[in-house]
Amino acid sequence: MSAEATNPEAHPEARPELRRRGRSRLDLRRLGRAALLGPTSRDRLPDAIGHVAEAHRAHHPDADLSILRRAYLLAETSHRGQMRKSGEPYITHPLAVTLILAELGAETTTLTASLLHDTVEDTDVTLDQVREEFGDEVCFIVDGVTKVEKIDYGAAAEPETFRKMLVATGNDVRVMSIKLADRLHNMRTLGVMRPDKQARIAKVTRDVLIPLAERLGVQALKTELEDLVFAILHPEEYEETRALIAAHAGERDPLPGIADSVRGVLRDAGIAAEVVVRPRHFVSVHRISRKRGELRGSDFGRVLILVGENADCYAVLGELHTCFTPVVSEFKDFIASPKFNLYQSLHTAVATSEGYVAEVIVRTRQMHRVAEAGVVALGNPYTTPPAEAAEGDEERVDPTRPGWLSRLLDWQQSAPDPDTFWTVLRAELAQDREITVFRADGGTLGLPGGASCIDAAYAQYGEAAHSCIGARVNGRLTSLSSRLSDGDTVQLLLSHDAASGPAADWLDHAKTPAARIAISGWLQIHPDSAAATTTAARAPLSVVGARGGGANAVADLPDAPVRLAGCCTPVPPDAVAGFVVRGGAVTVHRVHCAAVAQMRAVGRTSVAVHWRATADCRVTLLAESFGRPHLLADLTEAIAREGVEVVSATVEPPVEQRVRHSYTLQLPDAMGLPALMRAMRDVPGVYDVSRA
Hints:
Distance between the termini: 74 Å
Radius of gyration: 35 Å
Largest sheet: 6 strands, mixed
Number of strands: 22
Helix content: 40-55%
């Protein structure tokens, strides 16, 4: 396996800043010899970290390099005599890790901790010495990396050790930045290990570390890790992809010509922009070949346009879509709606007159830095280092901590066992999209794509969401299983009954770890309740009371019996129409009832109907509610308080926690119907009451 073959630095177009500076790839063997010789002067940086200093100053011109000199001297002295399995002096490893981070733009504190990240674990240096020499901030990061480095990647140990890694990452994301750079250098030099060990480390990298790199937005590390893992776990497909790229290298590449055309368009429009061609990395080429089949020349890379301001991005987009033929389905605006990992760009695709389709990415230079380096580009997230952060296990909250990481830290504490934690962690990291929904009180909730109202309930209320009985999404009542979309407004409805709990089928719709763990825990504690929710639906419950007197409607047919239609239950002063049915009876409907239109469509003649002078009437009402104990009793009590007689009542079996009630009522006065319906709607759990 060739590290150069999969390293983005092997493609100078992908890293224009390297091409401009003309710096060669770091020679680890030469650097190792320089490390053994040590510095030639106490007043200047050791030659061995010259590359690090140069890369660091490129991003931070005013950085104080003296602390890096002291950190290097301590690391080199401590690791002196230690060798890597590849035969190189061990100091080459922390130097290489630090150089990776320096190229990404990491600040001085991170680089200092990176140089020292193995000293506490592998040498006689103690945390107290690190704190005394370099301060609390460096000590805290080194301690976090040391705990992560102690992870045993054996199958049995993975769940609990990755739980510790997650906590260390949450306390300071710079810990995981160093870990990712550490893993990248180890993967570059993995060829000295046995094939079985290579495969084991590659699988862990694929399952956890690459998704974490994606979540932290460190695309530069993520893409190279993907290529290295691809080469180890899928060697045949890797060789096919490498041959495909090699064959393309000998053909005419249309992308440079397209980039020249784009430069001309933007120059004529007066937009200052840098236009470069970024070759796809190996895994990207493999994925697109599986998606599109035979690849054309423009499929092996993308055109990247860098501008100064956000407004320039949209100006560039307008020029592209004006001067080229846009592929509308490929347009995505990640500036207005950034990804959960801080990523911002405009994505589009344009077709040229020669028939090529080129994918184009438009972003500002600051967006580009964040897109490549993610959280590494955020610098030091703390304004005041905590005085005693490294002495205890107390958590300090990173103000730049992504929302998804906060959620992982919340639910990992309640994960019942390591296997559950491991399963749910991998499922959570596999989510590649996040949505933001608005709460009714004006707050926001960050949820993974595909989340339901159940997930929103547990994200907002925690275990109190066990009593959730429904939700309104964008003002409309919906079931708890409904999926949410980015920008939805969610109002969650909770039951007043403390004994209520989730149904077993909630697990079919819950996507977030917090929701699934909380629901599973409740169902284990209340197995009888869980069984009750899975029993077969019972027949509707019917309650029939004493029937009232005759209808108070009179038809213009002498001696004809009159019945009020059950489909629309007319009451005074509704406008009504009557129709003679079998047996000579007259059935009375409201004039807007669907049955009236059907009768007239088949040629039936209506009969004039008027109301008696008496005010009493019979009506059927439908009540829609969320299921809860004592609901039927509360509804009938509300009806009785209005002085209304219940002729009959039917309660249908619950469906998704919702219950439908049908009441036939005898009212002493039709004018009291609106007040009765309001009283029924005021019963907790009832969300709608309507005429049948």
